[in-house]
Amino acid sequence: MKRKNSAKRKVAYFLSNNVNKFREVARILEEYGIVIALIRLKKKEIQNDSIEKIAKVSAEEAAEELNLPVVTEDAGLFIDALNGFPGPYSSFIYRTIGVEGILKLMSGVENRKAKFKSAVAYAEPSGKSRIFSGEVSGDISVTAKGDKGFGFDPIFQPYGYEGRTFAELDTDEKNAISHRGLAFRKFAEWYISKVR
Ligand code: ITT
């Protein structure tokens, strides 16, 4: 039986090993009627200073290998006083020195400004690709706070949220202002118009 109001859902294939990220992305794309399928394959990541370039190369290589259009995201925390560190190395730094290591590096540092940045890449097997970016500004907290989210969320206080960290916000609150929310909403606007 045909459903009333049966606008066809669009599907996007998201390549990631980070299930927390996937949950956030699924929720953002749901608002646009886009269903996201997670492909949990280790993606190839080049070493580069640009998260856009890293995301683009990962998406292009995966699209060719899987013979599917795919979406990848590369994200990172860029701390002003550390000249943008850990930036593109955020995943490795999170796994090695972690949140406590960053707090130690920032101990006694007055300038606590930082940004989370996201680069979303969409690539087709033909080699065509698009990039969508988003960023959010805030401060690195003095101590870790909150138990929601993932990664560096407990030490990132976005501006305008009374000092609460990302780990103290609900997923929808975080998605409304996050680097990922901004980048994926740009992707979604483009994607629904492309496959309509
Ligand atoms: P992929 O498989 O999708 O690459 P990943 O966890 O390796 O998953 P990234 O390379 O994009 O993801 O992100 C690097 C790290 O930056 C990630 O492991 C987190 O520690 C941190 N990070 C990125 N986005 C974050 C967010 O929204 N909140 C907290 N930490 C974040």
Short description:
By secondary structure, the chain is of the alpha+beta class.
Give a structural overview.
This protein is an alpha+beta fold and 196 residues long. 34% of the residues lie in helices and 26% in strands. The chain contains six helices and seven strands. The protein has helices spanning 19-30, 51-66, 90-96, 98-105, 171-177, 179-195, and strands at residues 10-15, 34-39, 70-79, 85-86, 113-123, 129-140, 156-158. The strands form two sheets. Strands 4-3-5-6-7 form a five-stranded antiparallel sheet. Strands 1-2 form a two-stranded parallel ribbon. Helix 5 (171-177) crosses helix 6 (179-195). The longest helix has 17 residues, at 179-195. Inosine 5'-triphosphate binds next to strand 3 and helix 3.
Please outline the helices and strands.
Blueprint: E1 10-15, H1 19-30, E2 34-39, H2 51-66, E3 70-79, E4 85-86, H3 90-96, H4 98-105, E5 113-123, E6 129-140, E7 156-158, H5 171-177, H6 179-195
Parallel strand pairs: 1-2
Antiparallel strand pairs: 3-4, 3-5, 5-6, 6-7
Helix pairs in contact: 1-6, 5-6
The structure holds inosine 5'-triphosphate.
Key terms for this structure?
196 residues; alpha+beta; 5-stranded antiparallel sheet; two-stranded parallel sheet; 6 helices; 34% helix; 26% strand; disordered N terminus; binds inosine 5'-triphosphate
Instruction: Give me the number of helical elements.
Output: 6
**Rg over alpha carbons:** 17 Å
Instruction: Calculate the terminal CA-CA distance, rounded to whole Å.
Output: 23 Å
Per the principal axes of the C-alpha atoms, what is the gross shape?
globular
Average the pLDDT over all residues and give the rounded result.
Answer: 94
Count of distinct strands:
7
Low-confidence sequence ranges:
1-6
Helix percentage range: 25-40%
> Which range does the strand content fall in?
25-35%
Structural class: alpha+beta
Order of helices and strands: EHEHEEHHEEEHH
Main sheet: strand order: 4-3-5-6-7
Bound molecules: inosine 5'-triphosphate
Largest sheet: 5 strands, antiparallel
